[in-house]
């Protein structure tokens, strides 16, 4: 199965795009590492903080003029602090109680890059862009043979899942379903208020012909039963 979101290498002469953002590169200092490596009595399989942990880049607005790192941090330090903590632990009860600007400065180093250039402007740049590109691909290609479908060609094949609550985070988005070690089919998990969902279909695939439909109707229920509960 191909994907519209597959990144491509830029070629010589390809247009580049100036991004109206500045970049804040955040490095985690020793206090953050000490917090990440703190003893956790409730987690016997605690993972140690990696020594080669990469830095995180946050894009921030420039307003079309020169920006100052101090002003940017005044506005965004709290959001960055919480995002960095959540990157290691989503349990907010485990986060440090004192989260002030002074603590932020002790825990993180920040560098400002004022110019951001996108070398592949035609490719998706955000998670939302990727999701939309994958959704467009899924509804315009056969889920089994990957044939590109004309606008009015093909048909939908719908399936009911045992527990819809397991997939609520993917409602209205694509959901890959492993058929075997070598094959994955891509369908759309329906939004709860969609016509397909109201008709009883939780998981919908596009197919080109009755042949591909028959294969999916055989393989998809088996694959759904193999999913972990």
Overall description:
The protein is of the alpha+beta class. The chain has two domains: 102 residues, no CATH class; 100 residues, no CATH class. Strands 6-9-8-7 form a four-stranded antiparallel sheet. Strands 3-2-4 form a three-stranded antiparallel sheet. Strand 7 and strand 8 form a beta hairpin. The longest helix is centred in the middle third of the chain and has 20 residues. The protein is extended and about 65 Å long. The relative contact order is 0.15. The mean pLDDT is 87.
How would you summarize this macromolecular structure in one to three sentences?
The protein is an alpha+beta fold and 229 residues long.
Ordered list of secondary-structure elements with their pairings:
Layout: E1 17-19, E2 21-28, H1 30-36, E3 56-61, H2 69-88, H3 101-107, E4 108-113, E5 116-118, H4 127-140, E6 155-159, E7 173-178, E8 184-189, H5 195-198, E9 203-207, H6 210-226
Antiparallel strand pairs: 1-5, 2-3, 2-4, 6-9, 7-8, 8-9
């Amino acid at each position: 199965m191909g994907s519209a979101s597959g990144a491509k290498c830029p070629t010589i002469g390809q247009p580049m795009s100036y991004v109206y953002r500045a970049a804040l590169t955040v490095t985690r200092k020793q206090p953050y590492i000490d917090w990440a490596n703190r003893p956790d009595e409730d987690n016997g399989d605690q993972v140690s903080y990696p020594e080669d942990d990469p830095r995180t880049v946050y894009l921030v607005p420039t307003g079309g003029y020169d920006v100052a790192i101090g002003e940017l941090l005044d506005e965004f330090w709290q959001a960055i602090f919480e995002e960095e903590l959540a990157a290691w632990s989503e349990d907010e009860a485990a986060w440090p109680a004192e989260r002030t600007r002074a603590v932020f400065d002790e825990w993180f180093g920040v560098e400002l890059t004022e110019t951001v250039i996108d070398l592949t402007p035609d490719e998706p740049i955000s998670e939302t862009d990727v999701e939309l590109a994958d959704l467009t691909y899924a509804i315009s290609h056969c889920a089994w043979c990957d044939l590109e479908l004309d606008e009015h060609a093909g048909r939908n094949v719908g399936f009911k899942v045992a527990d819809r609550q397991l997939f609520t985070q993917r409602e209205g988005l694509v959901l890959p379903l492993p058929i075997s070690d070598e094959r994955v089919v891509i369908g759309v998990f329906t939004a709860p208020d969609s016509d397909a969902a109201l008709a009883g279909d939780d998981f919908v695939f596009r197919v080109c012909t009755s042949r591909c439909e028959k294969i999916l109707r055989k393989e998809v229920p088996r694959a759904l039963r193999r999913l972990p509960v």
